[in-house]
Every structure is written in C-alpha cells, then in structure tokens.
Design a protein that fits this description.
The chain is of the alpha+beta class. It contains eight helices and four strands, in the order E-H-E-H-E-E-H-H-H-H-H-H. The radius of gyration is 17 Å and the shape is globular. One of its GO terms (molecular function) is transferase activity.
C-alpha cells in the first residue's frame, strides 16, 4: 500500500491517522508543493485532479480523502470506525460530509488569511465573514458534543472524529476572537489520548 502526498496536507494526515487506527503501515511518498510536482504525468495518471492524497492499494487507485477513509475501514476490518448498521453509518457519513462542506467552507478564507498569511486571502471583510461563519459552524459542533459528551457520531470514536478532529485543530491555532467552547475543549483532550492523533494531528 502506498499513500501519495506530503504530511503538511490535512487530507493526507487524515488518511495516515486512519491507517494508524487500523494497524496499517503504508509507504508514503512525498508529493505536493515543495515536493514532487503534482503535474507530473506519473501523478496525473493516478489522479487527473492533481491533488493529494492518492491511495494505491495493490492495483487499486483511489483519490478523495474521505472516500479513502471509507474504503480503508471497509476493506481492513474497520467496522468499529465505520459501522455497518444503516443508521449508525449514516450518522458517521452525515458528520464527515458536514466537515467537507459546511465546516471547510466556513474556515477556508479565515485560515488561509490569518494563519497561512496567503496574499490572495487578505480582504478584511471576507476574513471577518469567514470568522463569523466558522464560529457558527463550531457552535453546531459544540452543541453536538454537548449532547454526546463523547464523540461526534455518538458514544464511540469513528471516522467522523478523524476528519473533524483535524479541522478543530485549525480552529485552535488560528488567532481571532472566539467564543468559549468547553465541550470542544474536552473533546480535544479525548482525541489527544489516541496514538494516531499524536502522530498525525499536527503538520
């Protein structure tokens, strides 16, 4: 098994964390900005979108990080991360999809502008709007974790916590005026006890 992508990518790290939870030891190849170029023909043959990560599992090639997570759990006895029962699985999918759409959309401009200092993301009004949207989304997560007092999809750790846990770290390291979120603070402490989080949560 090979994973193509640099470890500074949040989407590569979610795949590596999942592999750790499943006891898998893939070979990682350094692709992306500052590493091997994603527009090389060899890479484009695997992912025409020129994005990481890419999973190569024997003769099977897969891109899109959340799809990779689901595949790994399904193929490598990860039912405890991605339950087969329809309602339990739907709850995990719901929060994974929420992270990929609502939460990511909310934080993207503010994170790139405030944390990464990207020149293309320095419009003050757009940063403010992103911070407000991000705070609203984190309020949704705070309420959910207040209900479960455990993990995002319910009482048990799941794939949803891998994708959301990494996004929560971006919230914590980005400097702006934020509301207190005690349920999320407690959640981070639970995640920090997992070896995969320790190994892969930070770039």
């Amino acid at each position: 098994m090979r994973i193509l992508g640099k470890t500074s990518s949040i989407n590569v790290r979610k795949v590596l964390w999942t592999c750790d939870e499943l006891g898998l030891r893939p070979v990682r190849e350094d692709w992306g900005a500052g590493r091997r170029a994603l527009d090389e023909p060899a890479f484009l043959a695997l992912n025409p979108n020129a994005q990481v990560p890419v999973l190569v599992d024997d003769d099977f090639v897969l891109w899109e990080s959340n799809s990779i997570l689901r595949y790994l759990a399904n193929r490598y006895a990860g039912g405890w991360l991605y339950p087969a029962a329809p309602r339990a699985r739907a709850r995990v999918d719901q929060w994974m999809d929420w992270q990929a759409t609502d939460l990511n959309t909310a934080w993207r401009y503010a994170y790139l502008g405030l944390r990464r200092r990207a020149p293309a993301y320095q419009d003050g009004a757009q940063i403010q709007a992103s911070c407000l949207a991000w705070s609203r989304a984190m309020g949704v997560l705070e309420a959910r974790l207040g209900q479960t007092a455990a993990y995002v999809a319910g009482p048990d750790f799941s794939l949803a916590d891998i994708v959301i846990g990494l996004s929560v770290l971006r919230w914590r390291v980005t400097d702006f005026d934020k509301p207190a979120l005690p349920a999320i603070d407690a959640y981070c402490l639970r995640l920090a006890a997992r070896p995969g989080f320790i190994a892969y949560a930070e770039p």
